[in-house]
Amino acid sequence: LYSLSGRRLHSMRSVLRERKAVVVPSYAHFVWPAFEAGHVTEVELGDDCVEMHTLSSAPRVFFLPDLLSDEECDSLVATAEPHLREAMLYHPSAQRRQDTHVSRVRNSTNTFLRNLGPIDPVQARVLALLAAITHVPIDETETLSEGIQVGHYERGQHYRFHHDYLLRTHGLRTGTAGGRNRFITALIYLSDVDAGGETLFPLRDGDAELLSGLNPYNLTCPCEAHERGLRVRPRKGSAVLFYNLAADGHMAGALDPLTLHAGCTVDKGTKAVANVWIYNKPVQWHLFREQGSE
Description:
The protein is of the alpha+beta class and about 290 residues long. The chain has helices spanning about 10-20, 70-80, 120-135, 285-290; strands at about 40-45, 50-55, 60-65, 85, 90, 100, 110, 145-155, 160, 180-190, 195, 200, 230, 240-245, 260-265, 265-270, 270-280. It is built from four helices and 17 strands. Mean pLDDT is about 80; it is low at about 90-100 and about 290-294.
């Protein structure tokens, strides 16, 4: 049992004091309630707390302002910068060149920090924060996330419409392995952007009408054609958190197609982000290295 602010309830007295509680089966993960847009929850993190703003209930999208300090953002960027490479479609544990290919849906550069050696204190804090917020222990085990990926966008670069959940899992075969998939995305903005670079969810609040005629492979800036969608402007240190899998059935891998989103073209300045993909079930990354990419 959890309170509506995400606090674990350990006694009946605490349940009665809260009056309302979130019931989580022993086999499932905690999922933040789908409050209406504009609702603000204070998430308790020990002696501290962070604000979590509901941006949309369908898909479930939340905004966390001031999650990281400027210094923490700068540290992640500095660690990644010498290792940034052209964005590829591959899994972070791929070690062979033939297991990768240049992405056709984004033209940014990125790198996985896990591949660069032991994590530093800033990376450890990021994982600990996200573990506390999501109640998925990614800070204790590497099998529930891909680690931290840092991405960099120059002026004119973008990430076209896509889903973060995996339909092909590069040898892991998510669809036939008990529904194993990317459960949650945490997208942290590591810089401000002078113009453009928003994250766009065109199907905000279940607006399925927009799905008709949507071309996810449109090379032009997707933001201009979808005025009704949810747009999140990059703000250094803030984060967007959303659920790629359905609240009911997430352990079976039930997908939420409403999580379609895009990274709008950077019109002025540059954009730096950190992605953390959290899985619903443990993944043995060494199996990917053995099987290779599809």
